[in-house]
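User: Predict the complex with zinc ion.
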Amino acid sequence: MNRRQWLYGAGMIAGAGQLSFGSAAASAKADNQPKPLDLTQYEPKSMLQVHETHIERAKYPVIDFHTHISVAAKSSKGVELVAERQYLGTPKECLDVMDAKNMRAMVNLTGGYEHGLAQAVAKYDRIHPGRFYTFAEPSYSRCKEPDYPRVQAQAIEQAHRDGARGLKILKTLGLYLRENVTSGTLIKIDDPRFDPMWDACGRLNLPVAIHVSDPLAFFTPTDRFNERYEELNHHPDWSFYGGDFPSNAELLEARNRVMARHSKTSFVVLHAGNCAEDLQNVSKTLDRFPNMHIDIAARIGELGRQPRTTRKFFDKYQDRILFATDATPHGDEYPQQVFNDKLYEIYFRFLETEDEYFDYAPAKIPPQGRWRIYGINLPEAILSKVYYENAARVLRI
Ligand SMILES: [Zn+2]
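Assistant: Here is the predicted structure with zinc ion placed in the model:
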């Protein structure tokens, strides 16, 4: 028993009669109480002395399959409403980072549609051949028109002529797009209205980069049991718990029905198959659908905290995993996807080293959840596939 505990015990026995002794005991008792600490103020420094590898350039040339250089100039309730693009980074800004990091090419997934798409291709892909590839997006605001299925399939053909290298599906489909575009009931991912669009992509060899659903924790209450509590607390609109949202499983099943129905269309299921927390689920889906690839964008936080499972997963699916980050120029608000040197160095460290317990994003507080990650030290043969060859094949470079 130390002196403080002894005083505390003695004080309890002495009772209130002995004032001076009693108050000393009370203040000792106060010292001993756990002090509340605001979670946002908590920034523990790891005392682990572990090896830190600094990888400035990727070992092999890289294609970042998942970036956002342009976005729609106007969106409402998660739905892009206009063809016009807003540009987040100039080609020069991008090329400076790309050249420094050994990045051969960036895929700008959110190229939009119609004249917006044509302009994005002209500004990036055409002026810097081989460095930028732009994807098209559906024009959802037309989905109420009676001949939308045919119009949308034709728009894919036009996008192909305009230089699009694939089609991007944001989580808009399944979580935001409604019968009256931004109101009414949610439109399902496997709604038959989109069938001609998926088929057109297959016919034209345009891969579909598809994001459905979100981290599993986004479908559970934002409470003290939620592993992404701080992230959801910062962005309450990212929660899909309650309301009329489908469950995560329903979203993935609808996506799977699309892949089953359109076996000649190639799908790259983004964000580690949108189920990075459960790689067994992703494995089963990859085994079931030969027309499916995945990327790792914004999911090294999940993959890197289960490094042994992830490493085996990369061994098994080494021909079907694409390097990607979700990088956004000037996206400082979201450090896990900000387009800069530091972000790429973290990805390279994760893939190329066996470093332990490091941050998955360039941020003071881990933005997605309070954990750190471990490198998976991929062998060279797998690394070069994941960095470049798999994406080159999918993009038909
Ligand atoms: Zn993205």
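The longest helix spans residues 380-395.
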